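During the reporting period the student researcher (J.K.) took over the structure-prediction task from the postdoctoral fellow and processed the backlog of single-chain submissions. One of the processed entries is reproduced below for the supervisory committee.
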Amino acid sequence: MTNAYLRRSLTMAYGLQQDNQVVYQANPNMVQHLKGVKDQIRHICSIHLNRPVKVVTIDGQTFEGIIVSADDRFLYLSVAGQEDQRFLGAPGSFYYYNNVILPLVLFELLVITLML
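J.K. obtained the following structure tokens:
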């Protein structure tokens, strides 16, 4: 893929003017590599649906939950809600979320560990 081709594609897709200055453009080889990584993660998540996992993100955040879905952009993890933070209802009532579906960006996942 040439830079001119990418520039024309961006111009057509986003309605950019030809004279706009590009301030960042991903290396085409890197784009292909990232697409492969994303597809690999999505496939791994799809074969481990409904399994408990521990996920660590690039930023060092850790989440434990059950994989409920994965698409082109996100891993959806069902995590247990925390009663003191997941309040739902009128003041004085005691309705809480039992589970929360947390979308995690595929590109930010560093480690996914199956929990037994």
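The committee noted the following: The chain has a mean pLDDT of 80.
J.K. will present the remaining backlog at the next meeting.
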